[in-house]
Write a structure and sequence with these properties.
Protein name: NADPH-dependent FMN reductase-like domain-containing protein
GO molecular function, one term: FMN binding
CATH architecture: 3-Layer(aba) Sandwich
Bound molecules: flavin mononucleotide
Number of helices: 6
Strand content: 15-25%
Largest sheet: 7 strands, mixed
Pfam families: FMN_red
InterPro entries: Flavoprotein-like_sf, FMN_Rdtase-like_dom, NAD(P)H-dep_reductase
CATH class: Alpha Beta
Radius of gyration: 16 Å
Number of strands: 7
Order of helices and strands: EHEHHEEHEHEEH
Shape: globular
Domain NADPH-dependent FMN reductase-like: 7-155
Distance between the termini: 13 Å
Structural class: alpha/beta
Length: 192
């Protein structure tokens, strides 16, 4: 098959060594290992996006680059920290910008698989935020993958930056597999 799935990830915080950003990068690395092309918009890129203002039609270069990547993506990974029981403002601002794709032939995230990644201080915040993110992805017409990646940050990486937990590593691999196989199944359907 000549078409490589193009998977775009965005998320994280402005914090150095943001766990949510590193987890998104880990899913993208797995997707790459499974033959995908990938691109990441991390915390720094998201922090450069102005507050989304639907009444102002002009977009910055950063906003346009983000929208173009989402427009072309075959699959998406969104990573957020749990902030006060939900999605952070930084990540939600990027999500809100996807409203600009309302008039596209593929509206918002229509038809695309979306992997969700959450880093939290505790399991209650992780679960609540994962669940909220699934509702957001549904509102954007995306298909949340069955496997969500949710983790308590203090337990994710060891001092060498390696994943501590085999179960978490497996969920990262599984989510990447669900993204790439969903895209490949669509390509087979379209060319049949
Ligand atoms: C403003 C703020 C609010 C937070 N609220 C929650 C919360 O409600 N539940 C929770 O489990 N963790 C909460 N945390 C902890 C973060 O989710 C956790 O530190 C996470 O790893 C941050 O993401 P990062 O590692 O990508 O920076 C909060 C942290 C901050 C700074």
């Amino acid at each position: 098959m000549s078409h490589k799935p193009y998977i775009v990830g965005f998320g994280g915080t402005t914090r150095p060594r943001s766990t949510s950003e590193k987890l998104v990068a880990a899913v993208l690395a797995e997707a790459q290992a499974q033959g995908a092309r990938t691109e990441l918009f991390g915390g720094e890129a998201l922090a450069a996006l102005p507050h989304y203002a639907p009444e102002h039609p002009n977009r910055t270069d950063g906003q346009s680059a983000f929208l173009e990547a989402i427009r072309k993506a075959d699959g998406i990974v969104i990573g957020t920290p749990a902030y006060h029981g939900g999605v952070s403002a930084l990540v939600k601002n990027a999500i809100d910008l996807i409203a600009d794709l309302q008039s596209d032939s593929r509206v918002f995230l229509d038809g695309r698989p979306v992997g969700i990644v959450v880093a939290a201080g505790g399991w209650q915040g992780a679960g609540a935020t994962l669940s909220a993110m699934r509702d957001i992805v549904h509102a954007l017409r995306g298909w949340p993958t069955p496997i969500g990646v949710a983790a308590v940050s203090s337990a994710v990486f060891d001092a060498d930056g390696q994943l501590r937990d085999d179960a978490l590593a497996r969920s990262i691999t599984s989510q990447a597999h669900q993204l790439t196989s969903f895209v490949r199944a669509q390509i087979v359907n379209e060319t049949a």
